[in-house]
Inverse folding.
C-alpha cells in the first residue's frame, strides 16, 4: 500500500475517521492495528517478523533498565543487536554473501556450486531494525529509560507513516510523543501541506522523470556523453523527489495525528561539500550512522588516520545498508572518499555567493557520479556508465538534432532539463527544505493554504502515470 | 462558516474544470470507446444477437458470419464490444444493458409500479476471452470501464467482487477517485493531450526518443501471462457474475475461448495454465445450462506468428478462426439455432 495510491487514500480516510471518533487509549490501539494492517498489506507473513523484533527489543529494553550488572547488560545488548542484524542478514544479505563467496572462490579456481536462496525482502526491514536497535543502544547507554508500555513500544516500531522508508526516528524523540497520544490531541493542519507537496514531488516529478531515466539505465550500452549526463541529472532529481516526497508525506501524516517527526531532507543539492551534503540528505540515517557507528568506532578522537578509516567504514556500511549489491558498496566508498578528500575544505557559509554557486554546481556533479553507481544494475554497468559519461566525442549532435526535430523529442529534453534546473533553483531558494516552504505558506490566509493543497493534489491526480513505480527506498 | 466562503467557490472551479476535461471528446479515447459502444447497441432494438468482450472477440468476427452461423436475420447482430473490455467490463456492460432493457420495456401497472419485462433482450450472446485476460491486475482502464458502465445500484455487487483482488482497496480507491473526478478516470489521455499541446508530445512509449532512434526493448515482452492466483480468482469471479447476469439478458451464451501467443508455447508451465484456464471455464459452464463453451484455441494449428501482438490475430488468420468457430458450433449442434422456420415449415 504505497502512499500515493488510491488504496492508501481509502485506508487513511477510514483510519482518520476512526481516529477522530476515538479518544484516549483507544487511539493507540487503533494506531497499532492500523500500522499492522498497513504493513500486512504487502505480505501478512512479514508481520511475524516485525512483531518478533518488537517483542525482543521490548523485553531486552526492560531487562536492561532493571539490572545494574554490566556483564548481563552487555550480553543483553548483544542479544538485541544480533537478533536485529540476524534478521537483516538472513532476509536482506544472505544471497549477497552466498553469491559473493561463490564468485570469490571461483575467481581463485575453487569450484563451489551453490544456489541462491529464495527469500523475499520484507519491505522497510532496514528502517525498522535500525530504529529498534537505536532504542536498545540508548537504553544500554542510559541516555533514556526503557519503555514501560508494550502498546507504546509496538507503535514506536510499527508507526505506519514512517514504517517502510523512514525517517528513522529515535526512541527519545518518538516514544514520549506516543505515550502522550491518549492525553492530548495536537492536530497540525500543516501536515496536509506537506502531504500535498510530497505527492507532487513523487508523482508529478519523480514518476514522470523515471521513464526517461529508465530508458537509458535499463541498457546503458551505446549511450554517450551528454545523453548519459542528462539521464544522470534526471536520476539525481528523481531520487531526491522520490525519497524526500515520501518523507514529506510521512511527516505530514504524522503531524495530522499529532506527532512531529524529524525532517529528513534540507535541500541537499544546495550543499557545497560532502559533509554539508550528509547534513542535508537522509538526515535520520546519516545521524544514526554518526551516533551509533562512526562515534562507536572512535570518531575523530584517535588521530587523522583513524578518522579517515572510520569515515570510510561508516560510508561503506551505509552503502551496504542501502542494498545487498556491490554497486551500493562502491557508492558508499565514493562518498567515503569524498568525505576524506574534502574534509578540510572550508564550510560553505564562509564563501561568497558566486564562489558558493560554483562550488555547489561542481559538487552536484560529484554527487551525480555517485548516483550513477547507485542506479547501475551491476558492476559491469558501472564501468559502461562511466565510460559513456566520458566519451563526449561519440555523441553525434548532428544526427540527434535532425532526429529530435523530426520526432519532436526536443520537448522531452526541455522537460527533463527544465525540471532539473527548476528543482535546483528551488533548493537554493529554500535551503531548509519543504518544512521552510510550508511554514512560510502556513502564515498566510486559510484560502491560500486550501488553494495550495487542493491544486497540488488535483495536478498530482491528473499527472499520475498509469503504473506508478513504487518509492525507490522501499526496496531498502 | 467563514471557510465555506472560499472553499465552496474553489471546489466549484475544480468541478467545472473537471467537467470540461471529462466531456471533451478529443481526449480520453478510453472513455470514448465506452461511449461509442453504448451508442452502437442502445438503439439497436431489432438486434437478437450481441458480440461482447474486447477487440479480440470482435476483430475477426464480422456480424454477417454470426448471422450465417447462428441463422439470425440480416442486421440482427449488434457489435457491443469495447476495446480492452475484459470480464469485469463486460459484466458492467451487461448490467447496463439489463438496466436499459428494464427501463425501455417497463410494463406499467398501477400507481408508479414497473413490472420487469417478460422477454429477454437477446436470443444469443457471444463473449470471447483469452488467457491474457486472466492475468492483468489493477489497470486503471478496467476500473474506468466499471465506473463508466455500471449502474450505481450495482456498486455494492462490484465491491463484493473486488474483495477477491489482491488489493481490494486499490480498486475501490480508483473507483471512488473516478466517481469524484471524470478527468482522473483517463489521466493518461489527459496527460498525452496536454503534453502534446503544451510541449509537443510526451508519449511514454517515446521516452527513448531524446537519445535514441529506436527503443531497445520490444513491447511484446510485456504481453505474457503470469497467471497469478489472486488475479485469476478475481477474473473468475467476474466471469461467474457475468454468466449469471447474462441469463437474464439472453437465452444462450457462447463463451469463446480464444488463443493468444502463449497457446503456441511448448513450455509445460504455459500448457498447464492453458489447461487450467479451459477447465475452469468448463466448470463454470457445467452448472449453468445456458452457457456453451466454444474452445477456439486449437494448439495444434496456432503459431506465435499468427498474432500481430500478444493476442490480436493477424487479418490473414481471420478466416481460419471463423472456421474454428463454425466447427465448434457444429460439434455442439448449434449451427443455425436461431433460424426462424419459414411459413409452412415445421
Amino acid at each position: 500500500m504505497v502512499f500515493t495510491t488510491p488504496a492508501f487514500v481509502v485506508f487513511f480516510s477510514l483510519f482518520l475517521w476512526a481516529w477522530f471518533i476515538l479518544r484516549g487509549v483507544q487511539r493507540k490501539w487503533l494506531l497499532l492495528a492500523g500500522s499492522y494492517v498497513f504493513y500486512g498489506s504487502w505480505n501478512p507473513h512479514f508481520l511475524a517478523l516485525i512483531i518478533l523484533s518488537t517483542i525482543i527489543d521490548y523485553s531486552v529494553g526492560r531487562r536492561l533498565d532493571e539490572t545494574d550488572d554490566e556483564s548481563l547488560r552487555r550480553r543483553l545488548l548483544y542479544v538485541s543487536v544480533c537478533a536485529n542484524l540476524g534478521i537483516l542478514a538472513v532476509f536482506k544479505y544472505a544471497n549477497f554473501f552466498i553469491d559473493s563467496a561463490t564468485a570469490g572462490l571461483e575467481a581463485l579456481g575453487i569450484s563451489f556450486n551453490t544456489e541462491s536462496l529464495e527469500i523475499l525482502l520484507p519491505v522497510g526491514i532496514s528502517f525498522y531494525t535500525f530504529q529498534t536497535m537505536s532504542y536498545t543502544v540508548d537504553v544500554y547507554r542510559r541516555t533514556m529509560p526503557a519503555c514501560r508500555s508494550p502498546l507504546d513500544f509496538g507503535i514506536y516500531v510499527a508507526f505506519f507513516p514512517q514504517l517502510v522508508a523512514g525517517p528513522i526516528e529515535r526512541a527519545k524523540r518518538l516514544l514520549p510523543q506516543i505515550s502522550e497520544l491518549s492525553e492530548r490531541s495536537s492536530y497540525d493542519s500543516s501536515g496536509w501541506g506537506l502531504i500535498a507537496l510530497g505527492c507532487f514531488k513523487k508523482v508529478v516529478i519523480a514518476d514522470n522523470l523515471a521513464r526517461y531515466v529508465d530508458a537509458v539505465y535499463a541498457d546503458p550500452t551505446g549511450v554517450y556523453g551528454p545523453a548519459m549526463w542528462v539521464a544522470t541529472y534526471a536520476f539525481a532529481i528523481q531520487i531526491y523527489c522520490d525519497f524526500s516526497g515520501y518523507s514529506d508525506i510521512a511527516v505530514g501524516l504524522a503531524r495530522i495525528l499529532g506527532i512531529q517527526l524529524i525532517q529528513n531532507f534540507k535541500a541537499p543539492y544546495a550543499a557545497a561539500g560532502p559533509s554539508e551534503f550528509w547534513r542535508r540528505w537522509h538526515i535520520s540515517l546519516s545521524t544514526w550512522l554518526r551516533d551509533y557507528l562512526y562515534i562507536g568506532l572512535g570518531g575523530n578522537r584517535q588521530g587523522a588516520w583513524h578518522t579517515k578509516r572510520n569515515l570510510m567504514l561508516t560510508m561503506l556500511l551505509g552503502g551496504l545498508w542501502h542494498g545487498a549489491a556491490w554497486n551500493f558498496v562502491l557508492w558508499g566508498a565514493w562518498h567515503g572518499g569524498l568525505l576524506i578528500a574534502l574534509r578540510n575544505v572550508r564550510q560553505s557559509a564562509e564563501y561568497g555567493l558566486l564562489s558558493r554557486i560554483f562550488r555547489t554546481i561542481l559538487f552536484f556533479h560529484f554527487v551525480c557520479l555517485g548516483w550513477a553507481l547507485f542506479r547501475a544494475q551491476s558492476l559491469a554497468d558501472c564501468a559502461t556508465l562511466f565510460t559513456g559519461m566520458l566519451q563526449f566525442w561519440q555523441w553525434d549532435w548532428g544526427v540527434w538534432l535532425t532526429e529530435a526535430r523530426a520526432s519532436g523529442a526536443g520537448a522531452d529534453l526541455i522537460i527533463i532539463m527544465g525540471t532539473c534546473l527548476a528543482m535546483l533553483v528551488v533548493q537554493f531558494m529554500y535551503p531548509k527544505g519543504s518544512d521552510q516552504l510550508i511554514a512560510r505558506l502556513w502564515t498566510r490566509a486559510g484560502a491560500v493554504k486550501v488553494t495550495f493543497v487542493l491544486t497540488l493534489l488535483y495536478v498530482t491526480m491528473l499527472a499520475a502515470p498509469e503504473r506508478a513505480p513504487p518509492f525507490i527506498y522501499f526496496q531498502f | 462558516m467563514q471557510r465555506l466562503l472560499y472553499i465552496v467557490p474553489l471546489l466549484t472551479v475544480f468541478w467545472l474544470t473537471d467537467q470540461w476535461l471529462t466531456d471533451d471528446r478529443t481526449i480520453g479515447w478510453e472513455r470514448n470507446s465506452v461511449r461509442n459502444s453504448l451508442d452502437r447497441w442502445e438503439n439497436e432494438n431489432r438486434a437478437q444477437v450481441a458480440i461482447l468482450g474486447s477487440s479480440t472477440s470482435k476483430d475477426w468476427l464480422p456480424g454477417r458470419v454470426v448471422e450465417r452461423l447462428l441463422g439470425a436475420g440480416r442486421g440482427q447482430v449488434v457489435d457491443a464490444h469495447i476495446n480492452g473490455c475484459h470480464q469485469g467490463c463486460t459484466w458492467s456492460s451487461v448490467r447496463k444493458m439489463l438496466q436499459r432493457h428494464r427501463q425501455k420495456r417497463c410494463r406499467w401497472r398501477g400507481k408508479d409500479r414497473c413490472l420487469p419485462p417478460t422477454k429477454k433482450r437477446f436470443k444469443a450472446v457471444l463473449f470471447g476471452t483469452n488467457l491474457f485476460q486472466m492475468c492483468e491486475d489493477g489497470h486503471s482502464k478496467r476500473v474506468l470501464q466499471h465506473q463508466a458502465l455500471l449502474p450505481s445500484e450495482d456498486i455494492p455487487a462490484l465491491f463484493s467482487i473486488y474483495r477477491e483482488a489482491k488489493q481490494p482497496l486499490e480498486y475501490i480507491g480508483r473507483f471512488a477517485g473516478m466517481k469524484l473526478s471524470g478527468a482522473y478516470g483517463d489521466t493518461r489521455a489527459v496527460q498525452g493531450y496536454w503534453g502534446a499541446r503544451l510541449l509537443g508530445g510526451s508519449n511514454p512509449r517515446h521516452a527513448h526518443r531524446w537519445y535514441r532512434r529506436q527503443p531497445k526493448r520490444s513491447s511484446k515482452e510485456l504481453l505474457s501471462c503470469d497467471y497469478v492466483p489472486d488475479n485469476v480468482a478475481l477474473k473468475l469471479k467476474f466471469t461467474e457474475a457475468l454468466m449469471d447476469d447474462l441469463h437474464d439478458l439472453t437465452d444462450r451464451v457462447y463463451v469463446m475461448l480464444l488463443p493468444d501467443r502463449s497457446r503456441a508455447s511448448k513450455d509445460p508451465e504455459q500448457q498447464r495454465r492453458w489447461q487450467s484456464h479451459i477447465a475452469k471455464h468448463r466448470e463454470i459452464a457445467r452448472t449453468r445450462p445456458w452457457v456453451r463453451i466454444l474452445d477456439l484455441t486449437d494448439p495444434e494449428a496456432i503459431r506465435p506468428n499468427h498474432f500481430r501482438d500478444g493476442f490480436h490475430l493477424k487479418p490473414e488468420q481471420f478466416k481460419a478462426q471463423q472456421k474454428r468457430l463454425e466447427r465448434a458450433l457444429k460439434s455442439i449442434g448449434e449451427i443455425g439455432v436461431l433460424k426462424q422456420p419459414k411459413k409452412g415449415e415445421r
Summary: The CA atoms of residues 353 and 359 of chain A lie 10 Å apart. The mean pLDDT of chain A is 86. Chain A touches chain B through 46 residues (CB under 8 Å).
